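Residues pack. Consider this:
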Amino acid sequence: MKPKQLRIGTTFYDIRYSKKVICEEGELLGDIDLNSLIRIDSSVPHSKQLHTLFHEVTHGISEEMYLNLNEQKTTLIANAYYNFIIDNPDYIKEILKSFENK
């Protein structure tokens, strides 16, 4: 199921999926409006949508934590963590399991 809303720090972001994401830079796979909206291109495969969403969330974390990451660093960090999650599903399940009864 595609998430429709995420919380990053103190901000709740609505997530909108559309066939094209167009902004000043041109056509993108996704973008984040730091006032509470993330847009994701729904025409790409689901796995690419999730990866793009993770990238946009990394932008949101950078803003929330005052990291001021540029696009290159955002991409590197997002890719590293996304791949870590994909490569270590048992560890991620264990983390989630520890919060089930809380």
Residues 5-97 form one domain. Residues 19 and 42 are 5 Å apart (CA to CA). The beta strands are 5-8, 11-18, 21-23, 26-28, 30-33, 37-41.
